[in-house]
Amino acid sequence: MKFTVLTIFPELVAAMRAHGILRRAVQRGQIDICAIDIREFAAGRHRVTDDRPYGGGCGMVMKPEPLAAAIRFARGRMPGASVVHLTPQGRPFCQAAAWDLALRGGLILVCGRYEGIDERVCSDFIDEEISIGDYVLTGGELPALVVIDAVARLIPGVLGGESSAVKDSFHESLLEHGHYTRPRVFEGHAVPDVLLSGNHREIEKWRREASLVRTFLKRPDLLMHRALSPAEVEILQKWRSDIEKIIRNQSLHSADSLSGDQQAG
Fold first, then answer.
1. What is the rounded distance in angstroms from the CA atom of residue 214 to the CA atom of residue 210?
2. From residue 113, how far is each of 6, 63, 106, 233 by CA, in Å?
3. Are the beta carbons of 24 and 40 closer than 8 angstroms?
4. Is 172 a catalytic residue?
5. Which stretches of the chain are assigned E, i.e. beta strand?
6. Per the residue annotation, which of 32, 168, 172, 176 is the catalytic one?
7. Which domains does the chain have, with CATH numbers?
8. Active site includes 153?
9. Which CA distances in Å does 102 have to 95, 179, 246, 258?
10. What is the value of pTM for the model shown?
11. 149 vs 133: CA distance, rounded Å
12. Which entry of 32, 47, 88, 176 is annotated as an active-site residue?
């Protein structure tokens, strides 16, 4: 899969593709990551890509001419690619969105700067807008790199293990279980015995329950609209039974305590 980033800071993209899993994926030809400098399409000796906004206001706006020319150039090299603008106004980026983008015929990622890009580019040259969160950054480069990292790891072979990506957090609306490595005991905390048992069936069962526990404690909203498996329903029912026992015991303790106070009085 090919990623093309339109930016005025192409060196940021070059740094990302030079390290780790993405570098190896590029070397193996599984993905391609390149940057196009929007300034190369700007007119004049100074290659200016921004100007003051009509109507006044703070900051500058990216000019439409160089950005439109850069998008046209990128589309000429990637005819089947989707043009994505990284902006806080876009649809929220999540794991499901990453899977969706991984099925595209390539991505052209447009990185705005200053107060944003000219609205005419948004309406005529952009296929969709994506936001990585409800906050504002100084530019679209970091969001573009986030999207590349999240999508690239879903491309077959990039992670090495074919099942690695589908076991990540948010797959099937669950957070991933905890992970352990050597040493067996660290500062008094031991690795769960089941992980040392060699019983793969019990290990998988433990991981599923640990995943449910973590999701329930940290992101219960993910469980609200998820279709639970019979095994997961059984786990949740067991928790409910255990919680009800704890509440009943607390009620009994409270009643005994109250009775003792009355007798003492």
1. 6
2. 11, 11, 23, 48
3. no
4. no
5. 2-7, 32-37, 50-51, 61-62, 82-92, 107-111, 128-131, 185-186, 189-190
6. 168
7. 2-152 (3.40.1280.10)
8. yes
9. 10, 26, 46, 62
10. 0.84
11. 16
12. 88
> Catalytic residue among 32, 40, 115, 209, which?
115
Six token digits for residue 125: 């040259």
**How many residues in the chain?**
265
Q: Specify whether 115 is catalytic.
A: yes
Per-residue pLDDT of the chain (265 residues; tens, 9 = 90+): 999 999 999 999 999 999 999 999 999 999 999 999 999 999 999 999 999 999 998 899 999 999 999 999 999 999 999 999 999 999 999 999 999 999 999 999 999 999 999 999 999 999 999 999 999 999 999 999 999 999 999 999 999 865 556 555 566 789 999 999 999 999 999 999 999 999 999 999 999 999 999 999 999 999 988 889 998 999 999 999 999 999 998 887 776 666 666 565 5
Examine the residue annotation and report whether 65 is marked as an active-site residue of this protein: no
Tokens of 123: 């309406």
Helix (H, G, I), strand (E, B) or coil at 36: strand
Q: Which of 17, 113, 153, 207 is catalytic?
A: 153
